[in-house]
Automatic annotation (TrEMBL), chains A, B:
Its main location: cytoplasm. The active site is at D141. InterPro entries: ATP_PFK (IPR022953), PFKA (IPR050929), Phosphofructokinase_dom (IPR000023), PKF_sf (IPR035966), PPi-PFK (IPR011404). Homodimer. Catalyzes the phosphorylation of D-fructose 6-phosphate, the first committing step of glycolysis. Uses inorganic phosphate (PPi) as phosphoryl donor instead of ATP like common ATP-dependent phosphofructokinases (ATP-PFKs), which renders the reaction reversible, and can thus function both in glycolysis and gluconeogenesis. Consistently, PPi-PFK can replace the enzymes of both the forward (ATP-PFK) and reverse (fructose-bisphosphatase (FBPase)) reactions. The gene is pfp. Mg(2+) binds at N111. It comes from Clostridium saudiense. Its cofactor is Mg(2+). This is Pyrophosphate--fructose 6-phosphate 1-phosphotransferase. Non-allosteric.
Length: 405, 405
């Protein structure tokens, strides 16, 4: 029997290692390959010969790895040259695979990784080399086309929505409360910020306003909205994506940073801090707090969604199965079969179709004022956020396992 | 039978409502008072007649309230005048209690609340009014004297340590990693920052340096430590308390903010952002991230420590029991009976002794370099951090209940 290899690429998620474990256990069950290798630090590591044998680790290590957040095989942001420019790296990679008798390569990542997967697959076919290349989706941003959603998003959404609810309560305790701004990731798309809509108290959404990159942001309208709401309820809760833009397509945060650059100031943080200063300057109130969730939202295994972990596992499992059927140049997509009870299935989609596309948050799910979401968004989001797995919640402190440390 | 009243004061914690539920259920079991009232927004609310009847709510509401973070009765930062200055507020409060046939007053809070508790108790005794006043400890800062620790701290410690471990993994995925700075709360004491020491991978603490207000902070030594560590391992993880000070006792963050004030700049965030800029300016590396946990660390019920929740419940329970025995002017303290298995008991401590004291992190638990902790700190911290209660982890999104909304 030949061997296979898996590697991770791009920004980490809470569930990216579950996909690796799904693949390892698919091989244990289906018996397709002799050994499952892992490339450390993605394709960059493989090109440097940084390869370990995953299937030699104990089941205990594998079980802990499954519930360890962040890329436990290490990651990279390495982009291979275009085939037309040079085939050198492609040849080198294929040689390394050949030297290890590797007949299938699995890459866990987002758009760029699917680009790499598609190119490698095409080059192998072109040069008559029998290696299968399959992409496994991963990104908290949920911005891959064709797949209903991406593994990693559900857990990020759960952490964001939970944190919104908790910080809303925290910012509501006094007689005179203030304005709270929570900034999420999502430079190009609003999926992460949108998940804040799941935070409800007494059946009512706690976020007064949710701003996404897909709706043009107008500073004057924003201040007017906030002023009116503050006068009405003496408290305002705002969720904002780091990627909100003006009608001209300029990042609101960057527009601000540039206006200060000439003084040589240090950077002022993100758009949340900018909006905070804006509100204070406008005289609405000086009681304004802003909070950036930062990398917490992509690694918070302690608040992971079990459905997300399970689907991450399954796309890994399915990737191995499809490679064994001779497929190459595809990514595993998730199809939503049913919402209540939630049910999904898996399918193949050409990796190059994923590579050059971005799935934006549907503008028809944003209200007319551009400052909140419609019910359709909640119907989409809610089933992806489920319970925290017992193995995580039952432990005083997590016992994580990674292979790159 | 007469009635009793409970109110919350100061900054919220994840477990402050559990103390209220402990008290309500103590009364259900022991049958001491007719009704349990709650003052909304602390003493400020009571003085405005803002009182509800807690014992009239359903058991379902009470159960959900027990696992709801942040002061669900509302809070205040109201300091009563000194008795020598004016007894007007004291008389008004006692009249309100009398009008509602209230014979016991319970105040959940920190130093200031214990000051209020002590003063009210003394004044009632002095004027021959039969109302008992008992304080219930609460603060994430863990800075109350005599009690082994305070309810609220264990859950904050669990969230901080867990976030340290997860963000450490997140910041470790590339071949060339950078420097990560996590800033915790704790303006006067280092208990919160210290809890980062619980974050371990493969049995080894992941934080390279932990800086507390109790050890004088020297910028040059800091940069030297960071530079050496970065050269050694191409990655540094730093935890810093917002309250770190220079040898002269000046807040490091403020020293910085002031140096920029003359230009009229907006505030640059906390000490984490300051240290980040310092490292970049010093040329060690430009790959530096800083993250402020902010209010998340005091309201993260989704990562609460069950032992903390239980103890919060028990101090509420014990407060009612002690009032029924005729005690007044005391706070309920926690005594650690055993570390493994962890066991605690409860005792009375004069509220005025708590009011005018601060419990600092023991300097003998800090290493000689002032940049890390000794084993004794871990022995103290570890038992306070336990599992997440099932009721929280099993729910896709929490169903919280508060009484001030």
């Amino acid at each position: 029997m030949a061997n296979c290899i898996i590697a991770q690429s791009g920004g980490p998620t809470a569930v990216i290692n579950s996909s690796v474990v799904g693949l390892v256990e698919a091989n244990n069950t289906l018996g397709i390959f002799d050994k499952v290798y892992a490339g450390l630090n993605g394709i960059e590591g493989i090109l440097n010969g940084n390869i370990i044998e995953l299937s030699s680790f104990s089941q205990d290590d594998i079980n802990r790895f499954r519930y360890t957040p962040s890329s436990g095989l290490g990651s990279c942001r390495y982009k291979m040259k275009k085939l037309e420019e040079s085939t050198e790296e492609y040849d080198r990679l294929l040689e390394i695979l050949k030297a290890n008798d590797i007949k299938a390569f699995f890459y866990v990542g987002g758009n760029d990784s699917m680009d790499t997967t598609a190119k490698l697959s095409a080059y192998a076919k072109e040069t008559g080399i029998d290696v299968k290349f399959i992409g496994i989706p991963k990104t908290i941003d949920n911005d891959l086309m064709y797949t209903d959603h991406t593994p990693g998003f559900g857990s990020a959404a759960k952490f964001i929505a939970t944190s919104v609810l908790e910080t809303y309560l925290d910012s509501s305790v006094y007689i005179n409360n203030g304005i709270f701004i929570l900034e999420t990731m999502g430079r190009d798309t609003g999926w992460l910020a949108a998940s804040a809509a799941l935070a409800k108290l007494n059946g009512k959404q706690v976020a007064d306003f949710i701003y996404l990159p897909e709706a043009a942001f107008d500073v004057d309208k924003f201040l007017c909205d906030v002023k009116n709401k503050f006068e009405e309820q003496n408290q305002v809760y705002i969720v904002v994506s780091e990627g909100i833009r003006t009608a001209e397509g300029k990042f609101v945060a960057e527009a601000h940073a540039q206006s200060h650059d000439k003084f040589g100031h240090a950077q002022l943080g993100g758009v949340g801090a900018y909006l905070k200063n804006l509100i204070i300057s406008s005289g609405i109130t000086s009681r304004v707090k802003s909070l950036e969730l930062g990398v917490l939202q992509r690694c918070a295994m302690h608040c992971a969604s079990n459905i997300d972990l399970e689907e991450a596992y399954e796309v890994g499992y399915e990737a191995l199965r499809q490679a064994s059927l001779g497929k190459s140049g595809y990514m595993i997509g998730i199809k939503r079969e049913n919402n209540a009870p939630y049910k999904s299935s898996y399918f193949l989609i050409e990796a190059d179709k994923i590579a050059n596309n971005v799935k934006y948050f549907p503008t028809e799910w944003i209200n007319e004022s551009g400052n909140n979401l419609k019910e359709e968004a909640l119907e989409y989001l809610a089933p992806l956020v489920s319970e925290i797995p017992d193995i995580i919640s039952a432990s005083p402190m997590p016992s994580f396992k990674v292979f790159n440390k």
